[in-house]
Amino acid sequence: MAKQYDVLFRLLLLGDSGVGKTCLLCRFTDNEFHPSHISTIGVDFKMKTLVIDGIKVRIQIWDTAGQERYQTITKQYYRRAQGIFLVYDITSERSFQHIMKWASDVDEYAPSKVQKILVGNKSDEVDKRQVATEQGVKLAKAYGMDFFETSAFTNHNITETFTRLAEQVLAANKKDLDLLQMSMNDELDLAALEEEEGLCNSAAGDQGKGCWC
Amino acid sequence: MKRFPKGMPAAERAILQEQLIDIILVVLKCNPQLHYYQGYHDVAVTLLLVVGERMAIAMLHTLSKYHLRDFMDPTMDSTKHILNYLMPILEQVDTELHDFMIRSEVGTIFALSWLITWYGHVLPEFKHTLRLYDFFLASHPLMPIYLAAAIVLHREKEVKQTECDMAMVHHLLSRIPQDLPYELLIGQSQELFDQYPPSLLAKRAALQSRKSQSISTFKAFQLSTLHQRPDSVLQRLTKAQDSTTSRHASRHSGLEAALPRDRGQLWGKGNRMVKMAVWGLSATLGAAVFAVAQTAMDWGPEVLLQLF
């Protein structure tokens, strides 16, 4: 199968329930906005391909359920992520305070090299604002992250935020990129080996797709 | 709320939304050991739309204590445990498919919302949701898992043709096709259940460590529902309907004054809805009692003989 991209990254959206993770994602990938809140159950993802410095970067963005009880389930997806959006709602002080907890979970469960970015969503809701821009800037600085205030509703800073994190992940992995491609080839060989050993079932092999796991 | 029927007037929608919140709060307040989960409202709203507020509270109350009990723990560990029943069913039927899915590391999270909302969160057509709710009301708490297995098996070819990658398989499976043959799948899940009952699956190593409250209390639940015969339920419902109508007629009586909101508008249309609800419910309960009696006979004829 010819790949339509040069490199694939997995990004993860984290933050309290109702801060707008799903809306950010829908706006970015489909340019849609649905005002009614439909809670995410479990995890799901959407994809988009960006071109950064001439490299076709396919990003797989995983959206997670924000309710605390879902964390036993969502945590198992942290380790696969190369970049993480920590999202709060500028109209909810509480969601901002919880960023600390989300960040410490990321430290615990995500790879150490993971890139992070802080996002204050719903910037259009000026009248309801509870978290000042400066507070976001300060927190991001303390964590050494970039910071964006966004609005999925007005499409403010959406592409910028997603592109920025993709760029960071790309930069962090640039040195390893050649190495990564080499190891990807290794994996292909490994799959072929497994097939010979009969570990892969014949039907999958016959279809010529195999299991390039 | 996308689950409210399209074209419903905003005012009616607002009333239903209020009622939905009330239903959930009443049940949770009565049972402090139960915890809300995202998706619980999908169950509540389905009940509300069919049987109205009062009956929805009663039904949600019972379901929360039995069928949905495992999902209402403070954590989702028990829910994860229930999901663990899915792969062993697939393994029994189609080893190749099972191994493919294991290799892809897809896990079972794609079926999470199916299980905890009884598919209410994912099905676009309300009539299909209702059909499944009838089925699940008359079945063992694990039946949604058997249906999940039937759906995955139904899509076996598609799954095997997908790239053997966690994301790809998750993506494919978590989206339910529009045109699933529900009657066929319901039959198949019942067959799977009869062929590979939970007790058989539970013998598998991964499933031994944990106890499910929904499963362990189901026998008691079945016995208790034996006494809820359709005729007595119908009688009660007819009474409820009468009181509703009279309440509607004398809107300023004490009963109506005790109600927090003006529900006149809703109940105006409600008469037909209540009739449909009575019909649907009695059909469901009839089926439930039949199924319950039958399974109970299979399981413990001696207990039943003592009862009669």
UniProtKB/TrEMBL annotation, chain A:
SMART domains in alphabetical order: RAB, RAN, RAS, RHO
A biological process from GO: Rab protein signal transduction
EC number(s) per entry: 3.6.5.2
Family, per entry: Belongs to the small GTPase superfamily. Rab family.
Localization (cell): Cell membrane
Cofactor(s) listed in the protein's UniProt record: Mg(2+)
Highest rank taxon of the organism: Eukaryota
A cellular component term, taken from the record's GO annotations: plasma membrane
Role according to the record: The small GTPases Rab are key regulators of intracellular membrane trafficking, from the formation of transport vesicles to their fusion with membranes. Rabs cycle between an inactive GDP-bound form and an active GTP-bound form that is able to recruit to membranes different sets of downstream effectors directly responsible for vesicle formation, movement, tethering and fusion. RAB15 may act in concert with RAB3A in regulating aspects of synaptic vesicle membrane flow within the nerve terminal.
Biological source species: Scomber scombrus
UniProt keyword terms in alphabetical order: Cell membrane, GTP-binding, Hydrolase, Lipoprotein, Magnesium, Membrane, Metal-binding, Methylation, Nucleotide-binding, Prenylation, Protein transport, Transport
Assembly: The GTP bound form of RAB15 interacts with REP15. Interacts (GTP-bound form) with MICAL1, MICAL3, MICALCL, EHBP1 and EHBP1L1.
Membrane topology: Lipid-anchor
Pfam families with a match to the protein in the record: Ras (PF00071)
GO molecular function: G protein activity; GTP binding; metal ion binding
Protein name: Ras-related protein Rab-15
Catalysis performed (reactions): GTP + H2O = GDP + phosphate + H(+)
From TrEMBL, chain B:
InterPro entries: Rab-GAP-TBC_dom, Rab-GAP_TBC_sf, TBC20/Gyp8-like
Gene3D superfamilies from the UniProt entry: 1.10.8.1310, Ypt/Rab-GAP domain of gyp1p, domain 3
Transmembrane regions listed in the UniProt entry: 106-123, 135-153, 276-297
Keyword Phosphoprotein carried by entry: no
Domain Rab-GAP TBC: 1-140
Any one GO molecular-function label of the UniProt entry: GTPase activator activity
Cellular component terms (Gene Ontology): endoplasmic reticulum membrane
Entry annotated with the keyword Glycoprotein: no
SUPFAM superfamilies named in the record: Ypt/Rab-GAP domain of gyp1p
Pfam families: RabGAP-TBC (PF00566)
Biological processes, Gene Ontology terms: endoplasmic reticulum to Golgi vesicle-mediated transport
Signal peptide start and end residues: none
Keywords: GTPase activation, Membrane, Transmembrane, Transmembrane helix
PANTHER family named in the record: RAB-GAP TBC DOMAIN-CONTAINING PROTEIN, TBC1 DOMAIN FAMILY MEMBER 20/GTPASE
Protein known as: TBC1 domain family member 20
Organism field: Scomber scombrus (Atlantic mackerel)
